[in-house]
Write a structure and sequence with these properties.
3 helices; binds magnesium ion; binds guanosine-5'-monophosphate; alpha/beta; 6-stranded mixed beta sheet; 32% strand; Rossmann fold
Amino acid sequence: MQAPENMRLLFTAGEIRSRLERLAREIASKVKPSERPIAIVVLQGAFIFAADLLRKLPPAFGIEIAFLRCQSYGSGTRSSGRVLLLQDIDPEIDLRGRTVLLLDDILDTGLTMNFLVSHLKRRGAERVRVCVLLHRRRVARPAKSGARKKRLKPEFAAFTIGPDFVVGYGLDYAGKYRHLPMLAAVKLPRSKR
Ligand code: 5GP
Ligand code: MG
C-alpha cells in the first residue's frame, strides 16, 4: 500500500514487521520470567505497535498486559508541555516487586515517559523498562546554567527518527491516519512546525 499523497513514506508494513520480530527476540532474551513482567500499553498511540509486538513474544513468555491512557498533545502537532493521565491501569493490579514493560508509540521530549515511569514506580513497580516504536533523535542544545534534566533513553526502540511529524501504525494527526499500515511523515504547513 502507498502512503497518502501529502506524505512521505518512512517505513513499510513489511519493514515494521521484520524489525518487530527482532525487537521481540531482544525483549525475550533480556526480560526474565522471575521479574513477573507486565506490559503496560500507553493508549491510544501504542495500540497497534503493542498488539503486533506482544504477539511476537514466545507463547510461554508469561507476560500480563494492561492499559492506561495518557495525553501530552492537544489536537495539533505540538506538545502541550503537560501530561494528563486520562485513565490509569486497573486499581486491583499490584505492581510491587515487578517489572513493567512500558510500551509507547514515540519518545519525543521524554516528558510523557518521565511522568509515567515516576507514576508506575510510585505504584510499586520494581523496575520500568521503556520500549517505544519510535525514538526521536534531538539536536543537543547547550546546557543553560544550572543542572539540566537528563533526557530519558528508551531501553528498547524499533526505529530512530529525525524531526518529521510521523503518522500511521497507531500514530495520528488530529485524530486521523492511525489506521495506516506504514509509518509516514506528514508534510506540514510552515505555520504548524
Ligand atoms: P513526549 O512526551 O516524549 O514529548 O511526547 C510523546 C507523545 O507525543 C507521544 O506519545 C505522541 O503521542 C506525541 N508525539 C510526539 N511526536 C509525535 C509525532 O511525530 N507524531 C505523532 N502522531 N505523535 C507524536
Ligand atoms: Mg502518546
